Amino acid sequence: MLKRFFLSLFFTTRFYTLMGSMAIFFVVSFFFPSLYMVAQLVTAALLFLLLLDLFFLYVAGKQPLLISRNMAGRFSNGEENDIHLKLKNNYRFPVTVIVLEELPVQFQVRDFRKKVQMKPGEEQDISYTLRPVERGEYNFGKTNAFVRSLLGLAQRHVVGAEETIIKVYPSFAALHNYEFFSFNNRLAELGVHKKRVIGHSMEFDHIKEYTRGDDVRTLNWKATARRGTFMVNNYVEEKSQQVYCVIDKGRAMKMPFNGLSLLDYAINASLVFSNIALQKGDKTGLVTLAAQQVDVLPASGKKTQMNLLLERLYAQETRWEESDYERLSVSLRSLFSQRSLLILFTNFESMTGLQRQLPYLRKLAKYHLLLVVFFENTELKKFTKDNVHTVEDIYRQVIAQKFAYEKKLMVRELTRYGILSLLTTPEQLTLNVVNKYLELKSRSLI
């Protein structure tokens, strides 16, 4: 009991300042003996106030402060996640509470400090947000609170919430946003646009009367003869198509943008895209490529597929080796007998890097509909538009423009061999992939 008392007792800066002042007072009283008695009386008064402060903190309140930490059971990577600390003052007098939160080491925050004033019996809520940029386990330590009375000479250490381990998953917060807007037919507000393309897919739905704007190639002459008015066949998008997100985990995907690696952007986009593809009636799967290892999650249209995707994407990490695209083409050729849409998330920083992998991409495109998604270097793009004044800056800008031009050449090279491509910034990756998928659906390419 006594040990617990001393472990929880801390003196404040005010107490040490007063004690230092008293020491100086005693030094002065050595030269002026008449002040010695005054110094003793002031010291006695200070000790009395300290004992009174300790009585208020420890005797008058056996359960002084209740602290609880409320947050989601899992965090969304790259998004702001809310944490709430609830405090309740059980003292019968006002107190000052200083809260020190032990945040996970991944955030590298060592100065979290909140100071609140609380009335007797009052409850307060301290809210803050955290934005993780890595997937994995995050260990929250204890919530420490230091309680002071009005005297403010001592403070009592109170431990609130205990240690908690939170798992950070791919950005399921964005997934929920897309689900909500899709449910309310408001995807256009997020930047997703459905394109109207003249033509139809191969799945027949029903026959209806001709209205202005219908494709005349869909006229049903037999039904027109029976009804005496123009009738057209109505088609709907084909469903149950296999769609795979192929994620390259090689060193090219380790490049960071705004705190997140390209792999994390690809994972977040794959999660949102897979959910939309499932809502459109297609089957979604996942392929990950690292060095010579190819892991496949078979495509499925079941409701449990999203949970399987989330758990599979949660554990993905980049590797320093270069990915083996030859192994990828051979593996997918043997595993996938049905023509599928393959969305390959990768990155090429030079035309040479693309040329090395182009033969294997052509093999994949021969049997499947291949969409290669790679990234613009936004920092280089900004540099190409800056105003330069020195010869050195001109050289650097020319080099940056060369790299930016090479990205466009890569798109042209892929198009030359009938491979679809999407060059996008990391921030717009999810929107552009979803729009591209809807475009491919409307063009009946899948």
TrEMBL record:
The keyword Transmembrane helix applies. Residues 208-371 form the DUF58 domain. This is DUF58 domain-containing protein. The chain crosses the membrane at residues 7-32, 38-61. Keywords: Membrane, Transmembrane, Transmembrane helix. It comes from the Bacteria. InterPro entries: DUF58 (IPR002881). The keyword Cell membrane does not apply.
